[in-house]
Design a protein that fits this description.
Blueprint (H helix, E strand, L loop, with lengths): L1 H9 L10 H21 L4 H37 L1 H12 L16
Length: about 110
């Protein structure tokens, strides 16, 4: 069989799956380019995954902050419901309320 292909090639006939050198190089280059795009820039590529990892880290930090805030608010709710002194102080400081006859002064902070 090998001699038939070699003989036909020598006589000017091409073997059945013969591709010109430039065309093979072009196909190889095209394949490498396609794989590079898929693994680097595609939907599941390196760049997209890196971006998603940074988004996950940002969201995890935000979740931690919100959990701390939630615990702080739960503690304040518990103190307000159990301690009337704390409730009065909290209402005055946070909401700016006063008793009858009291005056409230606001000071602007200079920057």
């Amino acid at each position: 069989m090998g001699s038939k292909v070699k003989d036909s090639y020598l006589r000017g006939k091409r073997p059945p799956l013969f591709l010109p050198r430039r065309f093979r190089f072009f196909l190889l280059l095209l394949g490498i380019s396609l794989l590079s795009y898929i693994y680097i820039g595609g939907d599941y590529g390196f760049l997209q995954m890196s971006s998603l990892r940074s988004q996950v880290q940002t969201l995890q930090r935000e979740i931690k902050r919100e959990m701390v805030r939630k615990a702080d608010l739960a503690r304040k709710i518990e103190l307000i419901s159990q301690d009337s002194t704390f409730m009065k102080r909290y209402i005055r400081q946070e909401m700016g309320m006063t008793k009858k006859g009291e005056k409230l002064y606001w000071f602007k902070e200079e920057k």
